[in-house]
Amino acid sequence: MVLNIAIIGGGIGGLTAAIALRQKGCSVTLFEQAPEIGEVGAGLQISVNAVRVLRALGLKPQSWLCNKPANITLHDYKEGDLVARVAMNTTVDLPYLQFHRADLISELMQAAIAADVTLKLGKQVSVSMNNPDGVDVDGQRFDLVVGADGVRSSVRDQFYDAQKPRFTGQIAWRALVSMADLPSEFSTSSRVFMGPKKHMVTYPLRDGNLINLVAVEERDEWADEGWNYAGDPDELRRLFAGWCNDATTLLAHVNSPIVWGLFAHPPLHNWVKNRAVLLGDSAHPMVPFVAQGACMAIEDAWVLADQLAKTPDLAMALQNYQDIRKPRTTKVQETALKSGRIYHVSNPLTRKVLHTGMRLSSVAAPSIMAGHYDWIYNHDVTAH
Ligand SMILES: Cc1cc2nc3c(=O)[nH]c(=O)nc-3n(C[C@H](O)[C@H](O)[C@H](O)COP(=O)(O)OP(=O)(O)OC[C@H]3O[C@@H](n4cnc5c(N)ncnc54)[C@H](O)[C@@H]3O)c2cc1C
Q1: Whose CA is nearest to atom 51 of ligand 1?
Q2: Which of 15, 31, 99, 149 to mutate to test the pocket of ligand 1 (most atoms within 8 A of CB)?
Q3: Cα–Cα distance measured from residue 62 to residue 18, given in angstroms and rounded to the nearest whole number
Q4: Per the confidence metrics, is the pTM higher than 0.85?
């Protein structure tokens, strides 16, 4: 089906969908509220399942500016002891990638421009879905609108069962630290430090010149500061006081962290309403503890374009897209929450038992440890 499509949102999901839909012959106009397409200064991990999609779109993500870890190590927060080493089981063609978000967005935007996507920037649009024959966006009529407008989606607000995202009880502190200030091992290691009700993730970016930090803490309430704001680095250091040397060294060099409330809502019943469809965080926001939110948006983009291309009836194509994607994204949402609970065990005895079990299986059966998320990484939406 060749359609005239409006995409709302120029994040990773919206840009990937724009490229995929153009390749299927649709005409695509992408509306982004920001005056420029960009991203927060932070890292982003793209696993093999999403790399497959980018490659199938003719892109070469493995050659973009990124880090390619062979494994990720898990550590206890206090002594920094190694708890487990998880091999990413990647190949040269299908690596696990760690990007500066701005670098990934810039590559996707260039690909969208090369594919003749019409970009309309600085446009916070609203959508009128009352007409059964089309959708009106910014005074223009389209056959279909794709809501790729993130966790606070205004397109989703128009759905029958729309749910406002709720605070998950977790907040993420994000910062980038110059490698010039740090010991050399930071530039080659991707680590997770697990402590009571908190964890920290660190990995290198931009040829090891920058270190990405995400520090997550549980909080009962989210005050009214907005959903992201400039944080106080001393407060961050206080929150993680008493953590191991490497964690403390990294925290000592954090200057301007951003504090990010993690919001989500339970799975929606409908991702489709008449001629509107949701994709990425607008459909299935998730906590970032298996690093899959953007990867799922990239998979969504492929499946949506594929279904629209091969199903002659629009309503059926959209229903097929939802039916294919919802079970997988719901399972990933649940897995991410569970992963947070494992990282954050606060009872010292339970933590000791859990870490000992992880340590033993990482040594005795590394493939089982690595295979834990095979159902995520080995999935190939481009094969169907
Ligand atoms: C701390 C943290 C770490 C993470 N790490 C990872 C990771 O390692 N790997 C991973 O896969 N995922 C990760 N994620 C999740 C990932 O960031 C998101 O899932 C992903 O960015 C969602 O992409 P999206 O395109 O759906 O939405 P967004 O990136 O939110 O993009 C939505 C876009 O829509 C625009 N917009 C909104 N409303 C309108 C409007 N009315 N009109 C026009 N434009 C509009 C916004 O400006 C924005 O550009 C992480 C998340 C967090 C918080």
Answers
A1: 288
A2: 149
A3: 21
A4: yes
